[in-house]
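Comment on this:
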Amino acid sequence: MNRTLLTTALNLAGCGVPVLPLREGKGPMGNCAACRNNACGGRPNMQTPGLCACPRPCHAWAAATTNPAVLTSGSWAGAWRQAAAVAYHPGGAGLTVVDLDHADAVAWAHENLPTTRTVATTRGEHWIYQGTMRSVNGVRDGIDLKSTASYTRWRGAGNGTLRPLPDAVRVLADKTPASPRPAPGTVTVARQAGGGECRHRSPVYLERGIAMAERRITAATSGVHATVYGTFLAVLSAHGRCGCLTEAHIGRLFTAAHAKGESARHCTTAWSNAAAALGM
């Protein structure tokens, strides 16, 4: 096990930053036998349904975690032994990274974006802002936006003061059409194949699941963005395809998130991203 990388990962996780191991070449690594050595194609099944044979998200941004027990578990041990770097999920930490890939892109940022925390990279810089948005590659020559449903390599804490995500960055993504995503309260979930009776319609089963999700959000002491997103993802994964979720259930989850300081916009974004990640 690469102790140096694991120590870095644990330190980041302790600060509420969801992390994951990267192999040589910056690709994600599977943390289970089915996905080892990139056998599944190297992409999380929850982002591209059907591509990965693993029944849960075990690699790439969908597997990024702040849980030290997961990071040091046996299923991750092989990945850390082969890891070449540590990556993190910016959106899960409530951040957006403007990835500037060359000198011209850096010069453009200095002229058009407010200063913020900056991290040097091999060919350019990462400009990091507080706030989340959808991730888009190639918004300009040499410029990618990495936030939700994305990961980027950890290259250090950087320099400068972290600033709020500006409209000047958001508008870059607006120039690239987004795929339609359902909003909370209007999410359409598919029935089970064959039209069988939904096993989740037991009031006890469903109530237990929603109550556990509320408690998980309420108990979060750090990494609230990541906890809310992860909880929404888990709820949709368990109940989203059988038609048993109602607006009342979703409202309870949003209320719990609001109590932890999450805005309505953040909740809406997290729910939409979770639904999109599951292919809903």
About this structure: The longest helix spans residues 203-218. The first strand starts at residue 19 and ends at 22. The CA atoms of residues 191 and 258 lie 30 Å apart.
